[in-house]
Amino acid sequence: MFHATRDYSAIKEIPLLKSPPSYEEFRQHYLEPNTPVIIGSAMIQHWRARQEWVCPDTGKPNFDALREQLCQRTVKVPVADCQTRDFTDQKRSTMDMKDFLDEWETHSRANEHSRTYLKDFHFIRTFPEYGAYETPTIFCDDWMNEFWTRRMDMDDDYRFVYCGGHGTFTPFHADVYRSYSWSANICGVKKWTLFPPDQEHLFQDNHHNTVYDIDNVNPTQFPNFHKAERFTIYQQPGQTLFVPSGWWHQVQNIGDTISINHNWCNGSNLDLLLDSLSSDLKEVERELEHLKEMMEEGEWIETCQKVLLSNSGWDWSTLWHMCTAVRDRVLRQMNDGMIESPTFLDSTCTIFLQDGEEKQRTTPIFPAPLLSQQPPLELTLQRVNTVLDVIRKDPSARWYLVHVKMIPIDTK
Ligand SMILES: O=C(O)CCC(=O)C(=O)O
Ligand SMILES: [Fe+2]
């Protein structure tokens, strides 16, 4: 929509940049073409996580420091059992952080493989005052975390810590909503295998099942998988990887690893998010086709949106709200005559509603980048308005927003 079709055929290898690029370089060379890049350790060397979570002599996790700093109170963390598959994912549960660290250290000392992987742990939400890291400037134009951390109806975000011993892994997937991710490696080595987009036909069978583990593929079920183009990266301690939108990937941990990652989106991949929502919705509509005749049209639209929300975590109103929040912020920035520190970047205490009850939370401290470190505001506004227009003109999206979500939508 904003881009001519993206072309991945010219990529020969994933570049490694010694020092972080300027925002404009990053935007032009990686965000817009949607291609990966690795940034050397200088970018995150000063982080508290790099300084205090790793033993300087061995490069291994500093288990004592982690216990002392993070286990003063009981903290439940989400974990995955890497040896048990659960449909397209690993079996998930929660455990006490202290038990996780004790078990991990035992395996590490014995040089054994681990199977428990602490993943998708909302670190900043759990430790808002700790200051383990800051979002690098090139990743600051992040609409998902800007929007989710300020939503008044729920407390959620896409800012995670991952910790796992040798042998832990994340199975083959593309990221939620076709968002970008960045992953900063605090210690250990992470082997990434990245597949450029538009190769799904090679790793899906006729029943829409997808390869789970790229090192264990049944050639009868997926006879063409070996033809898929891929790039392998060994991400070293301190390096940060930018994972573009819609690139499928699998991650294997080599040694004891800790990493920090965010999922995010902005004007450069907003068209891909819109495509992703539309194709998720088409799939729901196909599945529910048999109910269509039995329902009034409005009921059918609402049912599809409910199923979409529960399957994929979003619906038309999520995308609409995110886009209008960004549009209003950009308009404020334009009207304020280019203030240096946009108000949305401040750290504030927000009141939000959960199950009808008022709760408090601290919103993140995004560094306040100079305006030269942001995308052009006019371009952002133009793209966000284009997507709002697509939603506004889609009859079923419009019906849902106006009649179910009670959102007044202008007809412009
Ligand atoms: O580090 C991992 O195990 C998975 C990370 C990942 O999938 C991502 O950052 O998109
Ligand atoms: Fe991922």
From TrEMBL:
Give coiled-coil spans as residue ranges. Answer: 274-301
**Keyword Coiled coil attached:** yes
- UniProt GO BP: positive regulation of translational termination
Query: What are the recorded GO MF terms, alphabetically?
Result: 2-oxoglutarate-dependent dioxygenase activity; sequence-specific DNA binding
Task: Enumerate the UniProt keywords alphabetically.
Answer: Coiled coil
| A GO term from the CC aspect | nucleus
**Limits of the JmjC domain:** 124-281
> InterPro entries given for it?
Cupin_8, JmjC_dom, JMJD6_ArgDemeth/LysHydrox
Know the name of this protein? JmjC domain-containing protein 4
Question: Which organism's genome codes for this protein?
Answer: Mortierella polycephala
The gene name on file is JMJD4
